[in-house]
Amino acid sequence: MDARRPQPSGLADSIARLRRALRRGARVADPANELAIAQLELLSCLAERPGTRPGQLARLLHLRPNSVTTLVNSLAAQGLVSRSEVPGDRRAVTLEVTGAGRRAVDAWQATNSAVVHLAASTLTASQRATLARAAPALDALAQAIERLADANAAPSARESR
């Protein structure tokens, strides 16, 4: 193994397992939700950043622009996302989550919260307390990772569209 390459950390592995388990748990808890994880992540990102352009979403979600276009087209057809032209540039659009899209995001977040709450209730009091104390640090870690990704992302000409 290359000594210069960072080794997987226990924390990164735990976070990856947690993400997979949470997605699976939420799917089991809400089998009626027919949206794909990629659609839910795009909706969630857009709900946090109204008025985002497709190229910006591609960068934020680390997806190819054509993948974002496919996702947006599907979500728009379902009435979950709306497009608006950018004044002065008929080729450019901004995206907004519709009321139905917001309800889908809220339902997904509520399902995730319920899954976490139920699973946490099976842990010891000490483990629950540790998780509660760790939550602000995990949020700060997520923000730091976002800042690093933003600083290292190569802007493209398409993002401005």
Mind explaining what this structure looks like?
It holds the Pfam family MarR. InterPro entries: HTH-type_Bedaq_tolerance (IPR052526), HTH_MarR-typ (IPR000835), WH-like_DNA-bd_sf (IPR036388), WH_DNA-bd_sf (IPR036390). This is MarR family transcriptional regulator. With 161 residues, this protein is mainly α. It has a single domain (11-160), classed as Winged helix-like DNA-binding domain superfamily/Winged helix DNA-binding domain (Arc Repressor Mutant, subunit A), CATH 1.10.10. It has 6 helices and 2 strands. Strands 1-2 form a two-stranded antiparallel ribbon. Strand 1 (81-86) and strand 2 form a beta hairpin. Helix 2 crosses helix 4 (65-77), helix 2 crosses helix 5 and helix 3 (54-61) packs across helix 4 (65-77). The longest helix has 28 residues, at 125-152. The radius of gyration is 18 Å and the shape is globular. The model is unreliable at 156-161 (pLDDT under 50).
> CATH superfamily assignment?
Winged helix-like DNA-binding domain superfamily/Winged helix DNA-binding domain
Name the CATH architecture: Orthogonal Bundle
Please, what is the oligomeric state? single chain
How many structural domains does the protein architecture include?
Answer: 1
String of helices and strands? HHHHEEHH
Mean pLDDT: 89
Structural class: mainly alpha
What are the low-pLDDT stretches, counting only 5+ consecutive residues below 50? Answer: 156-161
Largest sheet: number of strands, sense, barrel closure: 2 strands, antiparallel
Domain HTH marR-type: 8-150
InterPro entries: HTH-type_Bedaq_tolerance, HTH_MarR-typ, WH-like_DNA-bd_sf, WH_DNA-bd_sf
Protein name: MarR family transcriptional regulator
Organism: Planosporangium thailandense
